[in-house]
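Researcher: Let's do a round of design. I'm pasting the structure tokens now; please hold your answer until I've finished.
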């Protein structure tokens, strides 16, 4: 299963990196981080991070009662959003639905979903005052993936990458179309 996870290639804007997984949550675990950078342009040569996240898959033979299964996907992601979006009172519900819709679009079956969606607004003062105000959205979630075959876990990672793309405001890639550049991987 680990080799299957290591072989995942998301869309080109997402940089995946295998990182040490938490050791005390389950007997077995595996983790990725992901970053999405804005594209640099001639007027703005430095690309900046617009979204980042962490995906952890936990496996406990025999399961845990709260998981309702032997596996658990645990995620965190944050992305910059514009101030108008951050002020929308429906943003938390929209963010949660983006997660569930991403899982559904990939046909990544699951049970026992739980999580939070947080709006973050920042203002800078003093020497940091020249910075513009910032707004972010954070999604912390976990769910129990339904694993009928070894390929099923990949669907959950791809759904998470799709969620990150959606929240970061990347345009969708139409079915049957591949992105031009290949995905990057650190490490």
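Researcher: That's everything. Go ahead.
Model: Designed sequence:
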């Amino acid at each position: 299963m680990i080799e299957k996870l290591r072989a995942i290639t998301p869309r080109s804007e997402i940089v995946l990196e295998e990182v040490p997984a938490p050791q005390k949550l389950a007997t077995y675990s595996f983790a990725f981080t992901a970053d999405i950078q804005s594209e640099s342009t001639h007027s703005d040569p430095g690309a900046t991070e617009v979204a980042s996240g962490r995906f952890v898959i936990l496996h406990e033979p025999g399961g845990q009662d709260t998981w309702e299964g032997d596996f658990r996907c645990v995620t965190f992601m944050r992305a910059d959003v514009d101030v108008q979006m951050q002020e929308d009172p429906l943003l938390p519900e929209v963010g949660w639905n983006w997660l569930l819709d991403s899982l559904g679009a990939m046909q990544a079956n699951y049970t026992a979903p739980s999580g939070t969606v947080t709006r973050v607004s920042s203002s800078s003062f003093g020497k940091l005052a020249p910075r513009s105000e910032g707004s972010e959205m954070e999604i912390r979630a976990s769910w129990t993936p339904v694993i009928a075959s070894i390929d099923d876990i990949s669907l959950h990672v791809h759904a998470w990458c799709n969620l990150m793309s959606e929240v970061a405001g990347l345009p969708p890639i139409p079915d049957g179309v591949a992105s031009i550049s290949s995905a990057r991987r650190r490490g």
